[in-house]
Amino acid sequence: MNTQSDTFLSSRVLHHFYRDSVALMAIASKTEKRDGVILVGAVMATPSNLGILAASDMLPADLDAAPDDLVFVVRGESDEVTLQALDAAEASLTAVETAGAIEKQRPGTVSEGIAAANADRPEAPPNFAAISVAGTYAPIVAEQAIRQGLNILCFSDNVAIDDEIRLKKLAIANNVLFMGPDCGTAIIDGIPLGFANVVKRGTVGMVAASGTGAQEVSRLLDLAGVGVSQLIGVGGRDLSKEVGGVMAEFALDLLAEDEGTEVIIVVSKPPAAEVADQLLDRLERISSNGKPVIACFLGMDDADPAGGAPGVVVRGTLEGGAIAAARLANHELTITDLDPREPIPGRVLGLYTGGTLASEAKILLHRAGVDCEILDLGDDQYTAGRPHPMIDPEARADKIVAAGSDSSVGIILLDVVLGYGASADPASPVAVAVEKARAMAASDGRKLEFVASVCGTSADPQGIERQRSILRTSGIILAETNASAVRFVAAQQAGAFAS
Amino acid sequence: MTILDTEARIINVGLPLIVEGVPAADVIQLDWRPPAFGDADVARLALTLENDTTAEANLRAITAVQSVRPQLTRIRPAKEVVPGIAEGRTLLHAGPPIEWERMCGPMRGALIGAALFEGWADTPEEAESQLDRGEITVDPCHHHGAVGPMAGVIAPSMSVFVVTDRSDGRLAFASLNEGLGKVLRFGAFDNEVIARLQWMRDVLGPVLDRTLESYGPIDITSLIGQALSMGDEGHNRNVAATSLLTRRLAPTIARLEPRSEAIEVLEFLAGNDHFALNISMASAKLSMDAALGVENSTLVTAMARNGVEFGIRVAGTGNEWFTTPVGPADGLFFPGYGPVDANPDLGDSAITETLGLGGFAMAASPAITQFVGGTPDDAIAATQSMRRITMSRHPAFPLPPINFAGTPSGIDVLKVLDTGVLPLINTGIAHKLAGIGQIGAGIVTAPAEVFLKATRALARLRGTS
After folding, report:
1. Is B353 on the interface with A (CB under 8 A)?
2. B33-83 confidence digits (pLDDT tens)
3. Which ipTM did the prediction report?
4. Would you tell me which of A110, A174, A363, B215 could form a disulfide with A299, CB atoms 3.0–4.6 Å apart?
5. Which residues have CB under 8 Å from A62's CB, separation 6+?
6. Side by side, which strands form the sheet with A128-131?
């Protein structure tokens, strides 16, 4: 053992003991990390290796080692440290056997995904890609998938409109769907994608440029006992002048051919003027070929073809669209409105998680001449950096609580959206927030009324009855539909002003 | 008809939430990351290159590469065989082109040593001033059909391995490996180094050349193939290939040569575990050059480091280099050395990975798996990850631990961008000061930037950018 200034050098020789230099370097590197250890050498004692040790002042003067001996040398801060390090180094020579499990590499790209799917079950090649990556990359992934013949659900937003137009044309040329961008809801051949309610499979086919609008109509068709054959989302910009409704028309042609579809409904904001004529022509043609068609264009005036002739039925609310579609599929959907209550003074505030539900409320309240503030909390200006409020209901809960201290507010309108993709329990945070808001208002001598509708079906994973009962228990008035909730609010406001 | 007509099977790119309602068995969840290392513009260019023209070109390129069967035929002075090296005073170096002024310590040392060895200068100072004044031309090995490990310096009088493919008569060359310790390729140039080079020129080269002439050409593909089944990976572990070669040549050496020279040569081979590395490199070079200039192909034909920059060449862009500054390897160090001593990554030896050896064949080499994390399983995982960026399996290089599947071979620039997986390169680590030598070994990944640059150039050529 050598002692040099204030450091200590210890060595150990294992005679006729061979390890590969790489293994020894790994042991040296590991041992060097021990507290108090300065430098470690672990080598076979060949002349050149001993030379290397000498060069870094790591060769013990009294070392007795032959080239087929293994040498550990440790320089450390104390005798004890160096001896323990030598023990540890020697112990590392006998590694613990591992289980030998190699983690299977998950596919990382579209083509790897396709290859993995085909290797797994060659008889069922993949036919769909759901894309929810950042909008910068979504068009690239989408193009890869379209070229491979996959239908696309593009949940990603912030996709440039030029990309949307190009990808939709490419998809149509490849005879596949491009649903999106910013498309949150679809049901294809009974498979729900994105935010979709568990609706029974039925005879009404939908083309939707709106997410929660499609959910509300589809769940009402389920309630009516009709069910949905297909729900094809096309993205909110499809019926704009720029995109020209190319995907809506492609989807309509698919539904016209789809054997499970007997009635077709288009759910959207009113199309751009440049698109409307062509789209209505298409709808008329489908209708004259025997499949009844409803154009559910939010805010438009209801209209029916004259004298029971084939033609396009127009409805301006989601509820109206669902009722018309159910009727054309030979089912009645009856919505029972709420009885009026003691009016409460104060303005109407809508705190919505569903964008189309918010639009429907805004349209109906304006028509009724009711002054209101309706917020779509899923809009970019509210979500910045946070998940969509349908996924994370806490974001809205804060707004509800805040409304409790706003003395101008009397009635608060809410939606609670169930189904796949949505929060596992959206009702509870609402209930808790409502109670807090009420308490705050009460401490100020005010009353607050809350009115909500639940967009869900009896088969949704959240359990619609449980969700309803949580809301009811906290005193929230529940309407059957969003439109019905709005009618109630409008009636209450009329009453409040009359009194 | 319905919309899909067949059972729905969904590739999910992004949030698992989106396919919550789909039976798990029908979902293929991707472990996705942004393409082109997050550069969306280059990812779009890459997409324009992903077409039948490229696929067809790549098939031609990789088929050409894998059809090459290099034979080691001769060991000759470079000036007799390496094109262009005998013109004026020319020295070759590793990696992409670089001026003398910007070279790293070990490469400068090696060039000084080579000038002394050639007798162009009597002192290191004189050699340095000749290089300063541009009286000695420096040029990449790769531009002369040659490769060299580390500094990769080849001088006209040095003996070089000559490998050829009989089918087309093309040639490739590599320097002879000097062994470890104080050697020219790590920038050492003292008398011991020069004396060894002289011995290699005067004894080792001629003895081995006469031996080969008598024995006949050696098929390197089968030599490496056999070594892979004996624990080599053809880059950082060469003990099996060196042993196989020595075993084959020893009887002929003993029969032909005067006793003392035969003993010297055999002792040298017995003491140099890496002797076969340079043969593996020359063979890989010959193979990869078969794809040089295959129009529209996105196959990487060379990866090389000059100690300052990392460079690649791509079949479809011919002789153009795409380079970016390079850092030191992350690795294990000999006693007394650490990362602060390491020179940035250096040498032409990554040509072995370009073909599918070295880091790509890691599964074959349990003995050096500590470089990739410790266990043979990690080595298998390393090889499997290289599968994701390569064009095919090399039929002549089966890897026993993965059921004798061929090693992943032929890096596709587009696959690198699409997967975000970078080529793994096994490498030695040189001290940053000339002449100290090897201080460790480890793994480097090729830098992402060179693949982005190559894609921009490919797209420009195709008029798609």
Report:
1. no
2. 999 999 999 999 999 999 999 999 999 999 999 999 999 999 999 999 999
3. 0.89
4. A363
5. none
6. A178-179, A151-154, A128-131, B10-13, B27-29
